[in-house]
Amino acid sequence: MASSQDLSLRLPTAADVDAAAERLAGVAVRTPLISSPALDALTGGRVFLKAETLQRTGSFKFRGAYNKLSSLAPDMRRCGVVAFSSGNHAQGVAAAAKLLDMPAVIVMPRDAPRRKRERTAALGAEVVLYDREREDREAISRRIAAARGAVLVPPYDDPFVIAGQGTTGREIAEDVAQFGLTLDCVIVNASGGGLTAGVALAVKARAPGARIYTAEPEGFDDHARSFRSGRRERNAVLTGSMCDALMSQMPGELTFEVNRALVADGVTATEAEVARAVGFAFHELKLVVEPGGAVALAALLAGKLDIADKTAVVVLSGGNIDPELFAFGARAHAGRRANLTKWATRKNTAAARPLCGRFLCAAGRAFAAYLAASAAFGVVTASGGQRKWAENA
Q1: 80, 122, 231, 378: least CB-packed within 10 angstroms?
Q2: Within this chain, do residues 175 and 275 fall inside the same structural domain, yes or no?
């Protein structure tokens, strides 16, 4: 257990991931690797999906949160924890705190999806809202933690959080090996880089030849740019993507130190590609995936990585999407197929054409109208990123 003194910020190791797996055994869900003949046909490779959408609280974040909180000594638990998050880390910390009988305060942006805010509060956490564009969430959280004597639980830049997220990669490597296959690459959605760092540590320890890639929304590709420049790069804006879970301004300090050594490169996906991936996951795979959890899948579907004749794993990192918005998106998707001639030509496969294509720009325009009408009657609240996506579609 950690002492009541401040934990030193050290780089985690694969051994830390193994220790986290022991703490999480019987608490976190060992999520399945799902195969899809449709994805295999589209990509020419063997593709598996790590469905962290089925994890407790609907995302991988529970792993790191529980590992962090369960590592605290009793004297550190009494005053509780404080975290800042747009939703998934918030729910993970709230759920872990509830299981460990600890008070929790979560600082969340006002434009976070309503479902995430409601579920965080339902788990017993006190929710404090802030303005994403005008206020500093970390500064707010530190003030609250200092005033209450609580422990601050960062969303990614913490050795215990990284190690907990790394159990995702540990399971990936173990399951692929159990299938008798050689793991060639893993594609991970990246925000602050905690999931990527943990997955990289675990996978590289068991499959040294595997290549790790980050996937980010276009315009929020701080990891991809940082890998190429060799230093942490900032995103120019803080809002404006439907992928509300992936809008950290820059990679974390600890996470980047791990990732710069272990990650091959980063890829991006446009808003339209992400929307199509959400639709594809629902209609072809029968999975509910939030936009931020679908970027890696979007990049793969868009041909951003060549995995022909390779074994690849795509991490579906979260499935927390407002049900009204998801239902509308699914209805807009039904019966419509986007024009993917350019994509199909690049892939040069006739099999790709009937399997892909979702969420036309017309759906985005209709979505904007739906949001405006619903907001007028208080039916649904969209995040700022979701509103901007609809307006620009």
Answers
A1: 378
A2: yes
Q: How confident is the model at residue 12 (pLDDT cuts 50, 70, 90)?
A: very high
Kindly state the average pLDDT of the residues 181-195: 97
Between residues 48 and 271, the one the model is more confident about: 48
**Rama region for 357: left / alpha / beta (φ>0; ψ in -120 to 50; rest):** left
Domain end, chosen from 152, 177, 212, is at 152
The residues, ordered by sequence, that sit 6+ positions from 310 with a Cβ below 8 Å of its Cβ are: 45, 46, 184, 185
pLDDT at 331: 53
In a domain, 25, yes or no: yes
CA angle 122, 126, 129 (to 5 degrees): 105
pLDDT digits (tens, 9 = 90+) for 243-256: 888 888 899 999 99
Burial class (CB in 10 A: 0-12, 13-18, 19+), 288: buried
Same domain, 101 and 181: no
- The total number of structural domains that make up the chain: 2
